[in-house]
Every structure is written in C-alpha cells, then in structure tokens.
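Table S5 (text form). Sequence records supplied for joint modeling of the four-component complex.
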Amino acid sequence: MVTLDDVARLAGVSSATVSRTLSRPQMVAASTREAVRSAAERLGYQHNASARALATGRTMLIGFSVPSLASSYFPPLIAGAQNRAEAAGYDLVVADSRSDPQREASQLARLRGRVDAVLLAGTRLADPHLAELADAIPVVTFNRVVPDVPSVAIDTAPAFAELGRRLREGGHLRVAYVGGPAGSAADGARLSSLTAGFGQAVEVFGPVEPTFGAGVEVADLLAPTGVTAAVAYNGLLALGLMHGLGTRGRRIPEDFTVAAGDDLIGSAQALSSLMTVLQPVEEAGRDMVDIVLAQLDSTAPESAATPRRTLTARADMSRDPEREDPS
Amino acid sequence: MVTLDDVARLAGVSSATVSRTLSRPQMVAASTREAVRSAAERLGYQHNASARALATGRTMLIGFSVPSLASSYFPPLIAGAQNRAEAAGYDLVVADSRSDPQREASQLARLRGRVDAVLLAGTRLADPHLAELADAIPVVTFNRVVPDVPSVAIDTAPAFAELGRRLREGGHLRVAYVGGPAGSAADGARLSSLTAGFGQAVEVFGPVEPTFGAGVEVADLLAPTGVTAAVAYNGLLALGLMHGLGTRGRRIPEDFTVAAGDDLIGSAQALSSLMTVLQPVEEAGRDMVDIVLAQLDSTAPESAATPRRTLTARADMSRDPEREDPS
DNA sequence: TTGTAGGCGTTATCAC
DNA sequence: GTGATAACGCCTACAA
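The corresponding structure-token record, covering 654 residues in total, follows.
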C-alpha cells in the first residue's frame, strides 16, 4: 500500500504537505503542489479511508436501513439517496432487515459505529428506541413521524382524494379499494383519503400482498360485485387486476376503470388506460440525504442550532385515462 | 464517544484486556471477562470501526457496483449479497453507476480505498481495467468472464433451449422472441439458445426496453403476424405482451402462449398461464460474497494459493402452463 | 492471564 | 508555505 509518506519521500516534502496538497491545494505553493501531484500519480497513491476517518472523526458513510430490497418500492429510494450522497462525497451502506425487527436492531447497532448518519425506511423500531438512536447519531426517517427526529414523507392523501373525486365525477357509483399489505399504515391513509374524495364508502378488498398474482386473484372476487372501478394499493396489484379482469372479459378502461397507488414499475407512462398516483420516491431519497448532510455539515454547536427539518413531498395524479366513464 | 480506555478504567483493567475480551473472549479469565462486559454495557460502549479497520487493515466492507437500482434485476442480487455479507460480519456499500462508464470508474476508484472487496454486476469496464482493479483488490463479477477474475454467472441457455423444445413439442410452428435492451449480451445468448431448442428460426421483435409498456406496444406488432407463441426477455415485457394481446382479444394461454425470461416480479408463481425461466438471482448474490470471503479469509500466501473460483448457476424452467397447445 | 508499548495512515496544531 | 509532532481508537506482539 502506498502511503502519504511514500509520496512525501518521492516528492521531497513532508507528509503534512502531501496531506494538505490533497485536501486543501490552495494552502500550498503551486510548484510543490505539482511536484506532490505527480509523485502521487506515479505511485498510484490512494488515500486510506479508515485512517482518514479515524483522524477526522468522519467515515463519509451513510447507512440506509430498509425492510426489503426485493420490493420495488425501496430501491428507487436508495437510488435517490445514493445519488445525492455520492455528490457530497459520501457512500451508502445498505442493510436489508427483511422486515425482522430483531435483525433491524442488530444491523442498526452495527451501523452506529460505522457510519456518520442513518436513513430509516419502513422501520419497525419503537418510538423510544428510534429517539435513542437519533440521539446518538443523525437520523432521518421516511414516512414515519417521531418527535425530534427529522423525516421525509410522501403525502399521498391529496392524490388519493383527487382520485376519489374523479371517479365520482366520472359517474362511478360503486368503487373498490384493493388494500396493500396487512398492518400498513400507508394503506389505511390511502383508503380514507380515497373515501373522502369519493364522498361515500368504498368497498374494501384485502389486505393482500401487493403483487401481480394477488391482483389476479382479487379480480375474480371483484368481477361479480358490480363495482365499476378499483383503486389498487400499488402498480403491480393494479396490473394483476387488469389482467384478471381482462381474462374475465372486462375491457379496461371501457368496461372498468383501474387506478394504481404508485408508478414504480413504469405503469403510468405505459398505460393511458390506467390512472396512477405518481410518487416522487427518488426525490424523497435525495431529500433524506440533504437533511442529514445539513445536520452533518453544520459547523454550529449542533443541538438546537440546526433546526431539524422535515419535508413532505406531494404525490400527484397522472393524466386521465383516455376514457374514464363507467360502462 | 466511549473508548476502550473508558471501559478499561471502569473495569479496572488495561485496554488490551478489554480489546481481547471483546474479540477473543476465551483468551481472558472468566471473572475479568464479566467485569469488562458489564463495564462496557454500563458505558454503552460501541467499537469504532475506523480505528479497528486502521489497526487490522480490514474495513469489513464490501462494495457492490450495479448499473441501476431502478431495474428489478439487481436489487435481489444485492439482497442476496447483503444477506451473506452480514452473516460474515461485513456490510455492503452500494454504488449505482446509472450505466455511465465514467461514473462507474470514479465510483470504483473511491471504493478501492474504502472496502475489502468489490462485487461487479453489469459492469461496463473494459477487460484490462477490470483486470487491473482485480489486481489491487479482490473482485467478483456477475455474468461477465474475464481471465483471472472470479465470477458468478446464471446460465440461462439450458432453460431457453428447453423452452424452445417445449414450444416445438407443443406444436408451435412460428414463434417470436421479444428482445431485451439493445446491446445486451444476455439477450443474444437467450435468443440463440431458444432458436437451438426450437430447431428453426425464431422471429425477432426488438430490441426494446424491458418494460411493461414496451410489451404492450410489441403486442400490437405481434398480433397480426400469425406467430402463436412469444418468448419475452423478461417478466415485465411478458406481462405487457399478455396485456396487449389480451386487449386485442387473444386469450392466454388458450389462443397464444407467452413465456418470460425471468421471474423477478413474481410472475411465475402468479400465473400458471405463463411459462417462466427461473433465475436464481439472490443465490448468485450470495455466491459472489462467498467467493470474495474465501479470498479474503484465506490465510495462505494469497496469489496462486487460493484458487480463483467461478460458479455457474443454472436457470430452470417453471412448470408448464395449464395448456400450451397452439390454438 | 494480563499489562506495556508501538504502530496502523491521516489530519491538525503548532512552531519556524 | 512548510515541517515536526501529537493525536484519533484499536490491535497485537512481547514481556511480565
């Protein structure tokens, strides 16, 4: 391994000068700067992150805990975060808890001593534990509000309400909601916004797993009921619904209106026949990083100096499907 | 921050003893072990990863570079790797190159000084650069073979060949292949295996983006041609095909047979009407980590001592759809 | 079994 | 503008 000292020796300067040249070039004479740089180049010098971290107290690492990497929801969130983190010189350490609170806790314990900040999505941590973690290290949560912990949320309420309104205006009298995974907080919120917008009770199917297959199954239950529109928790479910309804002879959107709660598999752009709630997931990931960076870079005496930020992004509706009148 | 010394002072021993207690407990008397442990507990001691890394030369970090986190293909690969890495005490640093060779190169340069090993999927790195990287740090590639660099691959050839054979046996005379992204090596291989299995030329549509929407569009091109079966590069495309064909009045699988090149969105379990190539992606991720771990943990004088391993997993066919005779 | 002491590669605080 | 030098927190011979 090539060290600062090796470069220093070759360049005929001290290691302190090399260090300065590499981190704050303007503090160094132009001539020596060049000498040092070419020496570093020749030796193929790579700085040692651990040593730097030990000396500065900064690992330049941000941890991101998610309940699943298999779901299509979290990868874009991670992508957004990674993108922004990289721009700021940070790298992202991902931990997939596979929805196991036990595992999540131990992953976070490990992360604490390893990273400068932690991003939490879909956490199962109890409020007090979360607050405790946030006390030890900067934390930002996603779609989860805990006192004194900054968070980023995507507010789907307006979009689901609008969805309800449009269905009502489209003349639909009976509308179904196909719910997401059991125990999902987002699920309940979406349903109540939809109901509020629709102006009357919505018929609920589920909870079910938010998969294509589940959508196909639910279609069989739905078809005979007389509802003329269905709002699915997410895009895969909606696609499954469409498929299932299609095999039962219903044409979308002529005979039946389908809407999706997210656009993660690109269903929105693809299908003018599908109404879709657009969630700015990647942007949310970026925002999460922005918030921790603000906390991290704050030179102020920390504590109350840096106001804990909380951001809420707004989900929007895609354009109408070509026809959305009920049959 | 609580350090070893703090714990040592409270426990009335030296920091060396604390260090030993925490890393190799059996080297320490039971009584002192307990004393140290309770002291560490009381203080809430968390070891500092940077300091440990500097002292041991091990960061306990593995880098994983992927071209995209948005695609549904790589997250499961990462999940498998993360899972295995965690079990071995390692954490995973992810880098999304967004298919930009430039960005990938700079990410890898950063990673080099930060992690103990690098996993590469869908890399755009030229062979020589890749070899150079592998020379500096343990590297494992996915679906990419470079001399002297260990790799993991999923061999889809047998499955696609079998697919071709089954279609032939099912009586299909004209079969379509809907190709994946332009320039994909996997794409060409799949087509030729399919063709070989089918025993005669397959009609190619594409290349197209492997999305649901693209599948819908291709369905319009496909429907009038007289082919009775279509094999899609991946699951989303296949779903799009089914949808598009469905809206044009074709029933699957009664009127038309559709097959998918992967099962990443759970299409296989969901749809008995869809033939699906099952790819052990998560297992591949695990294998990649296993290989680097073997290289890392090898106490032998490295170089030729640890044989560079290469694994090839085999993709398999899902069960037949309920009916696969052509109409 | 335990303590002492040196070193891991960088940064940062001083003088010069 | 540059060079010693002391941390940073931990690990690990080596000695006791």
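Note: Chain B touches chain A through 56 residues (CB under 8 Å).
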